[in-house]
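Course assignment 3, question 2. Fill in each field.
Student: A.L.
Task: Predict the tertiary structure for the chain below.
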Amino acid sequence: MENAYKNFFEAECRELADLETFDPDAFVGDDAVPQSVCNFVLSLALIFNDLRDLYYANFLVGGCKPTGSVLKNKQWGYYSGLYLHIVRLILSAIHELLNLIEKQRADMDHPIFADVLKALPKDKRKEWFDVVGIALGKSSADSRLEKLLLRIRNNVSFHYDAKALYGGFRHHFLVHQPEERAYVSRGNTVQSTRFYFADAAVDGLLNEISGTNGPDLAASFEKLIDGVYQPVMLIISGFIQKRGCAFRQEPC
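Answer field:
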């Protein structure tokens, strides 16, 4: 099993492009570019990494998915809980991105950031402005992606909001599946115990946020990640280059 995990990780590393370096001064403010703008882009880079790591974690959890039809058993219950945990972390990271944009809205008006945005492909620039519009409350939420972002923006359930969690519990057990009983594994150790009904409450909550159920839920969040991290990725690289810090390829 250890070798299998190592092989998965090595395969993931092979997908990474060759190592490059740049002058760290790209993120040091000066008379031309305020430090706050550099800090904003640096924060975007960390959020990108977090989303990428969670995407990989979701891939690893997907490898644990039981075979066959969904059943009411420990294997499916545990897998569903792991999957929902990853989704919740993804939503939390995107929620923090929206908060960051709102707090540092003035930095996005700086000429260097505007130049970086102008250089983006048209479709990626639109995706970025969709995200910004939601963060600043200036969007009509016409597209499905925008509607999902808006629900995330207005929901703080990722931080253990008790009222929101109970709303998910009601949605799952009393609305969506009123005949279902709540499940637990009651052991004497952490490893032998799981409260599946709490996972079910999260499932109900996420279905309410996304407006979908079942397989559509996973598809919605995959589109959400693509619509967020691709423009962010291009903004970070573009900013470094705009600061005159050329990338240099390095040996492995």
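Instructor remarks: The chain is about 65% helix and 0% strand. Residues 145 and 223 are 7 Å apart (CA to CA).
Grade: pending
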